[in-house]
Design goal:
Strand content: under 5%
Structural class: mainly alpha
CATH architecture: Orthogonal Bundle
Shape: globular
Order of helices and strands: HHHHEEEHHHHEHHH
Strand order of the largest sheet: 1-4
CATH class: Mainly Alpha
Helix content: over 70%
Radius of gyration: 19 Å
Low-confidence stretches: none
Amino acid sequence: MDRFIQLALSGIANGAIFALVALGFVLIYKSSDVINFAQGELLLIGAYLTYAMVEQFGLWWPAGVVLAVVLAAVAGVLIEQLVLRPMIGEPAISVIMVTIGLSSLLRAIVGAIWGVTPRPAPQFLPTDTVTILGANVGVDRIWAFGLAITLFVILTLFFRYSRDGIAMRAVADDQQAALSMGISVKKVWAVAWAIAAITAAVGGILLMSIFGGVSGTIARVGLIVFPVVILGGLDSIPGAIIGGLIIGLLQSFAGGYLPPEWGVGEVVPFIILLFILLVRPYGLFGQRIIERV
C-alpha cells in the first residue's frame, strides 16, 4: 500500500507538469489551429535560460527565474511573428513541418550556446522527503504539484475575467465572428504563444529542479505531451489537465510495478495514444467536428 501511495503521488506530480505543458499546446491549437511540435524545445529553452540567469550570471534565483520566464515569453512571441505568421493560409501539413523544423532549430541553438553536456541545476525546491500515509514522498514533487495548480488557477482567472483572456476564448470559438467584433486575431495568437512559452518554461524549471540537472533530455517531455493532448482533446483545456494526470499516473504505475527492463513506463503514453486514436480520435473532451462534403 505504501508503494502504491508513493507511486500515485509521484504520478500526480508528474501529471501536473505534463498538463501544464499540454495547456500551452492546447492554447496554440485553439487560437490558431497550429499543432506545435516544438513545445518540448520551449521546455528546454526555459530550463537553460534559468540555468544561465542563476548559475552563469549569478542572479538571485527568484529574480533569475522571473527573468527567464519573461525571456521565454518574448521568444514565444518572436516565434509566432517571424515563423508562424508568414504561414497563414498555407496547408496544415506545411505548418506542421515548419514546427518540426523549428524544434530542430531551437535544439541546435541551445546546443550551440550551452553544449550537449548535462549541467548541474540550481536547486529551487527542497530535496527532503515527507511521510504521507506511510509512504515517503519527495517534497520537491509536492512543491511542483502545488506550483502547477497555482499557475492553473491564475490562468483560469485570466481566461475568465481579463480582456485578453475573453478575446482568446472568442477567437478559439469563432475567428470570423471575433474579427467582426473588432478583436485582433494576430494579437491573440501572439498572447497564446507567449502563454505557451511561459507554461513550458515553468514546466522546464520544475523538471530541471526535480532531475537535479539540465540537459537535452528535458525536451523529451514534449513527446509525452502529445499523447496527453490527444487523450484529453486537442481543443480542451480541462482535457489537458485530466489527460496529464491520467498519463502521469499510468506512467508511474507502469514504471513502478512492471520489470524495468521491459521499459513499459517509457512507452505507456504512446500505447494510450494509439488506443485513443483508434477508439476516440477527438479525445475524451475534444469537440467532435463533422464535415459534410
